Amino acid sequence: MMQLQKAINTEDQELAEIRSAISDTVIRRDRLKEAMERWYVSNPGKRFPQVIELLSLDEKLSWLDSRFKNLWDARPGCEAVL
Questions:
Q1: Sign of the CA dihedral with 62 first, then 64, 68, and 74 last
Q2: Contact, 72 vs 8, CB < 8 A?
Q3: Any idea what the Cα angle at residue 22 is, between residues 13 and 48, rounded to 5°?
């Protein structure tokens, strides 16, 4: 029973860390999207120089979201909705 509680606490901590990382990543992505919109107003027809960073943040956000869902669905008493 003690090991199960320890595992749940560890999972809860990881969920909290992932939730925080998701929040931070969304803020960074939104700021970069705003910068991109401003950049395109001044530079029509050119490629936004930070497009790779934006794509990387989108990829990171997708991974974090998937990891959070997998951990959430694996919690005792939680069943994945298919």
A1: positive
A2: no
A3: 155
Q: Global pTM?
A: 0.78
pLDDT of residue 11: 83
Q: What are the structure tokens assigned to 2, written together? A: 């003690």
Q: How many CB atoms lie within 10 A of CB 18?
A: 18
If DSSP codes are grouped into helix, strand and coil, which group holds residue 62? helix
- C-alpha distances in Å from residue 62, one per residue of 8, 9, 29, 45, 69: 24, 24, 12, 28, 11
d(CA 68, CA 82) in angstroms, rounded, equals 16
Interval 24-51: pLDDT, tens: 999 999 999 999 999 999 999 999 999 9
Q: What DSSP designation does 45 have? A: T
- pLDDT exceeds cutoff 80 at 69: yes
Cβ atoms within 10 Å, residue 46:
9
